[in-house]
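#structure-requests
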Amino acid sequence: MKINELLKKRPTLSFEIFPPKNNENDITSIYTTISELSKLNPDFISVTYGANGSTSKNTCQIASTIKNKYGIEAVAHLTCINSSKEEILKILEKLKNNNIENILSLRGDYPKDYDGHLKGDFKYASELNEFIEASFPDTFCLSGGCYPETHFEAKSFEEDLQNLKKKVDAGAKYLVTQIFYDNQYYYRLVKEARKIGINVPILAGIMPAHNPKQLKNIAKMSSCSIPYDLAAMIDRFASYPKAGREVGLHYATYQIIDLMTNGVDGIHIYTMNKPEIAKEILKRTEYIRDEFFKC
């Protein structure tokens, strides 16, 4: 089932996982993660492409297992930077043959040796969307990423919104935010996006943080600010891992409750391949979710 069809009916609950990274290229550990997450009845599970496409060859295999073994909709990430049209076509054909109907199309990170010149045929995710739509019409449900606090390469929030609109106009049927810790940025994004004609669902990406180093890395990776109260709590319990974990989970729970109260389009949990994170958050929001998803 295409995710946009589900979103027409109700908000969604989803998880993100990534292909395991190790020297042996052994991805078997991810299947335990998928098995545990499947018990939580998500609407879909997305599979990342890996930094710089480093684990891209496993994305289709993992997505296929999610869809064809567990019967859960899978969303395969697909990045286009430094990729040729021929390479993308091969991947799309493989996804289609594995019954994968949903793709999160992304530009991707610049390669480590980037010198200002790209070898591939695409510069932006919007170009990838146009190519997929032209090559495989009515085959895939495309989605895109967005930044509640502005993409780090954009000159302004307004410019970032215009770039986001290009993704949607090129075929993205819904959007998934990067991680954020201040819900007001999500609400601003939705409000301003609607003003310029971005009317697709915008799912909120949530991931708990439990120590100062992790929080700093997330902030850098996601271009998000850290609210003072969260930073203070994490710092206060930095020497007590169990307490820090409680802080992170409680804060994520609060975010989700607030988002659901205000009618979020969907919750997308970045699990970091740790199903216990998703389990804890869902346990803490059980009755609220029951009411929210009935609406």
